[in-house]
Amino acid sequence: MNMFRFSLLLFVSALWLLSCDDGGGSNNGTDATQGDCTNCGTSELRINEVLAGDPDGGNDWIELIAVGAEANLVGWQLTDSNPAHVLDVSTLAGKATLPAGERLIIEVDPTLLWGFGPAEMASLLSPTGEIADETSWTTGSASGGRTWCRIPDGEGAFTLCLPTRSAANIAMTTCGNAVVDAGEACDGDASCSTIGFASGSLVCTDCASVDHSACQPNASDLVINEASSLEDQVELYNAGSADVLLDGYTLSDRMREDATRTLRLGFITLTPGQRHMVDITSLFGLGAADVLTLRDPDAKIIDFVEWSGGAAEPSYCRIPDGAGAFQTCAYTPGAANSL
Questions:
Q1: Are residues 83 and 155 in the same domain?
Q2: Counting Cβ atoms within 10 Å, is residue 166 exposed (0-12), middle (13-18) or buried (19+)?
Q3: What burial class does residue 251 get, using C-beta atoms within 10 Å of its C-beta: 0-12 exposed, 13-18 middle, 19+ buried?
Q4: How far is residue 232's CA from residue 254's CA, in Å, rounded to a whole number?
Q5: How far apart are CA 70 and CA 99, in angstroms?
Q6: What's the structural domain count of the chain?
Q7: What's the rounded Cα separation, in Å, for the pair 335 and 315?
Q8: What is the pLDDT of residues 308-338, one digit of tens each?
Q9: 43, 78, 85, 241: least surrounded by Cβ within 10 Å?
């Protein structure tokens, strides 16, 4: 049987109305909670492969597969770690059923609606609002030339894979050869300094994820002061005693430089103690688990912050401003941070 090849670019104005209720949550009114999937991978419709960061700048996508029997798509929904992000599967597919063994590709354009974060979760909700299938991945596991997929298709556990959109999944087997191959986040002797930090040691796990917590940013008076994944807003703060011109500085939701996920700041001068809000919805949004890096005009990392588990809802900020550790806090755009 020929594989079903279907991809669909999301148009936010129409699909948002179809997939969300007045309160921004699931239109089923379900109480299902991500991570509470007691029967994952037992339904006829399952998550099969996820791309959460195309190295060529394309859209994120998720592949569904019908296992064992024809799958009725009506009433099924997709969401990520933010319960307000809900998409109706049959509406996107433009059809009510998916034949047994066939795959359905759904593209998620982050500039129009929302995209998957580098460390994220994807859930498939049944017509009754229950979590029928679910998977989560760490930073680097579904991006940079690799995907997060089931081996074998539809039935196996999720693992690191080569991108095989609409075709049989292929596991990635090059980890440990001391070379950062396509799809790997790390391998070999990469260090903090090679990706723009001043010093420190990286911790590489299965070539899929990197722990940057021991990396030391380059000295700078300009810092990330607050980030809200609900509002997709970032606050910068001049913690020094001299003016800072923002021209040439960049914000990104990637540790490594990625032009498709980088926002260049403009000709704005911050006086000592001044804050500046940056709206990042036009290029990338912030997920429940995400990372932000701030680079200077020489592309050196001068500040970064990572969070998971919805810690940036409503916001994630330094207390006290400019110098304190990050913690979940109230959303206070342009004002002093507070719990």
A1: yes
A2: middle
A3: buried
A4: 15
A5: 4
A6: 2
A7: 13
A8: 888 999 999 999 999 999 999 999 999 999 9
A9: 241
